[in-house]
């Protein structure tokens, strides 16, 4: 944990967000579920900015084909569990924070992320996201969703009890191929994960965020960004009445 003089490392961001916000980041707990392109970038940004406690969940190992868009990993990490490789790298970025790696699927480890302040989505399939959404809604934990395919990205924040949940606007019927099977433009991953990081910071500091109850859709080939309001579905099987 960092106190007093240790806060000086955040000098440039303190000038923007202020000391009180920085202390909220220090005292907050974030779970990142899925440590691929989205999750590893979010983890890197949150660790560097001083979020005090990160739980990283991933069952997979680093592959050479990950490294083009997952800068937490390098060639020496190939075949290592992502959660472990990521936690080792994050401790080099910021040794003052706590990082808990969980090598496994979140469905089998939900009890270990029950007491976090924010859940960040780094998953790669709709079915897994819908499970995570249902868990977050049930435990009333803010949930930052993102997905990327090709040049396109989506980001939304779900505040249980206040906004639409993922199930309100996303059905499971689309099939369940991994998005990365269709190819991913790395800058689109960086864009989506940067917005996820900023949403997370905003929730921790303000209790809400610019994309709460909204869906951002962007095209990284043209830089067109579009934000739409999401309505709660009163008959949603997850969050409905
Ligand atoms: Zn819903």
Short descriptors:
alpha/beta; eight-stranded mixed beta sheet; binds zinc ion; Rossmann fold; 7 helices; 20% strand
Query: What structural class is derived from the secondary structure elements?
Result: alpha/beta
- Top CATH class: Alpha Beta
**How can the largest sheet be summarized?**
8 strands, mixed
Q: Strand content of the residues, in percent?
A: 15-25%
* CATH fold category name: Rossmann fold
Strand element count: 8
Mean pLDDT across every amino acid position: 94
Envelope shape: globular
**Terminus-to-terminus distance:** 42 Å
Bin the helical content.
Answer: 25-40%
Number of helical elements:
7
The SSE order reads HHEHEHEEHEEHHEE
Q: Superfamily at the CATH H level?
A: NAD(P)-binding Rossmann-like Domain
Radius of gyration: 17 Å
Strand order of the largest sheet: 3-2-1-4-5-6-7-8
* CATH architecture heading: 3-Layer(aba) Sandwich
Q: Give the low-confidence spans.
A: none
List each distinct ligand once. zinc ion
Number of domains: 1
């Amino acid at each position: 944990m960092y106190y007093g003089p240790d806060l000086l490392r955040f000098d440039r961001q303190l000038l923007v967000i202020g000391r009180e916000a920085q202390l909220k980041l220090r005292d907050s707990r974030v779970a990142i579920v899925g440590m691929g392109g989205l999750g590893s970038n979010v983890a890197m940004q949150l660790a560097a900015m001083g979020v005090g406690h990160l739980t990283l969940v991933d069952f997979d190992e680093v592959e050479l084909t990950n490294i083009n868009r997952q800068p937490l990993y390098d060639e020496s990490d190939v075949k290592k569990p992502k959660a472990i490789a990521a936690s080792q790298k994050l401790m080099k970025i910021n040794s003052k924070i706590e990082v808990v790696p969980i090598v496994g699927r979140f469905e089998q480890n939900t009890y270990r992320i029950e007491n976090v302040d924010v859940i960040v989505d780094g998953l790669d399939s709709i079915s897994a996201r819908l499970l995570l959404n249902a868990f977050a809604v049930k435990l009333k934990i803010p949930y930052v969703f993102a997905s990327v395919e090709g040049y396109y990205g989506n980001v939304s924040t779900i505040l249980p009890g206040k906004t639409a949940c993922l199930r309100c606007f996303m059905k499971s019927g689309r099939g369940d191929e991994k998005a990365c099977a269709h190819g991913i433009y790395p800058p689109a991953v960086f864009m989506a994960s940067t917005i996820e990081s900023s949403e997370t910071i905003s929730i921790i500091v303000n209790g809400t965020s610019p994309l709460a109850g909204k869906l951002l859709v962007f095209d990284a080939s043209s830089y067109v960004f579009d934000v739409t309001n999401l309505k709660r579905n009163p008959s949603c099987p997850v969050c409905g009445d």
